[in-house]
């Protein structure tokens, strides 16, 4: 499928099903809307999947990995080799995302969208690795475009295809995650360009750079934006000039959720950047998105406000990997259960009026 | 056991285990403390249970029910008969707490601490009912004391005993919940007296009274405080004059957590009032408490600030029944898993330094 075909195949969520779901909520054996956001989430699930009995039991986290040329400009506290080492840790089952996904019975699918090392496609204890490598890391966008326009489109399509395969296997709820040393820098750049905010406002310390590192990081991002001059109205141009392969693939997974009418939970700052690219291509995708959490990374809340999404959790997390999305899936599943399982006043034979 | 024996048997959580747990967190294969509050919660679990491998797999919600004489003064949007009808709904498994407890594999234990109708002790589809009735509802505290001092002490001891039995059965994590038409009024009164804030600041609309009802509610609470003149320094006096049986029993369950060194998750506004009574008797109980969520009920945040507790969730919920505690248990269990299951940098063979 081409990007144009995907975009033209996306429809808004059903307002009619949301309205019907609200009527059902009003009859539940409790004071009106007493479960607050759980009702809102449950009703959105109804609108997304065009049903009053939404199911999100089959869950997966798609953790997309890529390397970043900008690491050479000293923007990260960790060496670039950690990207591949963490992919191996995911496959061993020993990272944060493995633990939180296991707790909710969700699969972990790791996608190599463009890391430097070669790790063979495999299914192992911690999850499944699918290799969809676009290149061995991006260019240093403070000196050159991160990738070509064709590579940007390819990243989006590969993310779309990976999510499509999962939905075809029966998946009901997909969370996005990321791994890529240096990837808060392209995410900040994408946010600054698309939302039109100063780089300093939307740039944080990522994995924990010190004051000097933070200064270097902001300067490299600003230099990259100035040099590449991305067109804010053209998301493919933004992605190719200052983005990352995993960010493009996350955008593709977001588009797939909207195309196949499945809910997507985005994680933190990097998934937020992916959602910004998808939203730029097709604004209605936000109908299908849940923001798992508000990350502790400075500027993440600016992305969520721009997308019009309220974070489900706010636990000062900033790990990435999809951890915030995985933890929030419990709340989303609770919301689906509230729609399906709580009795009405009538069914419970409980008095409603004095 | 007497109340004095219970209080004198309570020790602070172990600072030494918290410090050891922090050292373990610092080695995990992620940027420093990148899972934010999950680390804080996990380390507190270590301090509570004096271990570096905390387990909270065996979970239960103790949903304590009582009736309230003050309903006669027009403070609630629902008739008093709903208290007993909801207890029956819990036993059928059709209420909010059943659904959220089932999702996390937690038992629901319903305790009749003083509802008007007689419902036989039983184990059924939705949970177990234990009958520990102190009286058939409290007195209308806007006209007389809610209960005698002996009844107040008895409510606390019965809550303590119920929790004690659960811990002796192997329970690792206990959530408190409540059911009682009218019980936001005594909870507001307890908060106003103990925290010394105006009634209007700490009183909300409960199950949803209208403007007139809200006015009536505030006036009844103020009249009750003026008439009974509870001594803020004497929690038993406060509980007996303006409290409720389920609130006293929740205080007892909180004391039991601290006494048996087990974590307790409090739910919303009514559990908050119970925690205030327990804290008045023995301030160190907060070492053992987690605040499941910030309720949408006005004034709940004032209680949490007074107790020094940060809510885990903030989802605009205000149902009670223990629903906020149940939903938060997933996050607490995640925190325990983070302590136990994530590899260190060394174990994962991931590079830490450039």
Comma- or semicolon-separated keywords:
5,6-Dimethylbenzimidazole Phosphoribosyltransferase, Chain: A, domain 1, 47% helix, 2 domains, 14 helices, 12% strand, homodimer, 8-stranded mixed beta sheet, globular, Rossmann fold, 354 residues, alpha/beta
CA radius of gyration of chain A: 20 Å
Mean pLDDT score of chain A, rounded? Answer: 97
- Strand fraction band of chain A? 5-15%
The residue fraction in helices of chain A comes out at 40-55%
Decide which structural class fits the backbone of chain A.
alpha/beta
> Strand order of the main beta sheet of chain A, please?
3-4-2-1-5-6-7-8
Kindly provide the name of the CATH class of the largest domain in chain A.
Alpha Beta
* Quaternary organisation: homodimer
How far apart lie the N and C ends of chain A?
Answer: 59 Å
Question: Major sheet of chain A, described briefly?
Answer: 8 strands, mixed
Q: In the CATH hierarchy, what is the architecture of the largest domain in chain A at level 2?
A: 3-Layer(aba) Sandwich
The unreliable regions of chain A are none
Approximate shape of chain A: globular
What is CATH's topology name of the largest domain in chain A? Rossmann fold
Q: Count structural domains of chain A.
A: 2
Largest protein-protein interface: A-B, 59 and 59 residues
How many helices of chain A? The count is 14
- CATH H-level superfamily of the largest domain in chain A: Nicotinate-nucleotide-dimethylbenzimidazole phosphoribosyltransferase (CobT), large domain
Number of strands of chain A: 8
Written as H for each helix and E for each strand, in order along the chain, the element string of chain A is HHHEHHEEEHEHHHHEHEHEHH
């Amino acid at each position: 499928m081409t990007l144009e075909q995907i975009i033209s195949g996306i429809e808004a969520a059903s307002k009619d099903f949301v309205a019907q779901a609200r009527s059902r909520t009003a009859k539940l054996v409790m004071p009106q809307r007493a479960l607050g956001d759980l009702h809102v989430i449950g009703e959105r699930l109804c609108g997304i999947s065009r049903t009053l009995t939404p199911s999100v039991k089959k869950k997966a986290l798609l953790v997309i990995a890529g390397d970043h040329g900008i690491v050479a400009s000293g923007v990260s506290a960790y060496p670039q080799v950690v990207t591949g080492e963490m992919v191996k840790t995911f496959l061993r089952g020993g990272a944060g995302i493995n633990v939180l996904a296991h707790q909710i019975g969700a699969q972990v699918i790791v996608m190599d969208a463009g890391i430097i090392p070669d790790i063979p496609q495999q299914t192992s204890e911690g999850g499944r690795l699918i290799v969809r490598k676009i290149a061995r890391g991006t260019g240093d966008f403070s000196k050159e475009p991160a990738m070509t326009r064709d590579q940007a489109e390819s990243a989006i399509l590969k993310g779309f295809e990976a999510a499509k395969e999962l939905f075809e296997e029966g998946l009901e709820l997909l969370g996005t995650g990321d791994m890529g040393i240096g990837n808060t820098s392209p995410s900040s750049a994408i946010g600054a360009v698309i939302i039109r905010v100063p780089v300093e406002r939307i740039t944080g310390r990522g994995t924990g750079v010190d004051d000097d590192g933070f200064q270097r990081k902001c300067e490299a991002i600003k230099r990259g934006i100035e040099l590449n001059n991305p067109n804010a109205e053209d998301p493919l141009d933004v992605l190719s000039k200052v983005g990352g392969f995993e960010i493009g693939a996350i955008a593709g997974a977001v588009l797939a959720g909207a195309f196949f009418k499945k809910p997507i939970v985005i994680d933190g700052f990097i998934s937020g950047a992916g959602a910004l690219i998808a939203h730029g291509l097709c604004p209605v995708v936000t109908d299908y998105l849940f923001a798992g959490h508000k990350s502790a990374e400075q500027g993440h809340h600016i992305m969520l406000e721009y997308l019009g999404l309220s974070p489900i959790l706010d636990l000062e997390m900033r790990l990435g990997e999809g951890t915030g999305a995985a933890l929030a899936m419990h709340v989303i599943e609770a919301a689906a259960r509230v729609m399906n399982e709580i009795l009405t006043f009538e069914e419970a034979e409980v008095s409603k009026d004095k």
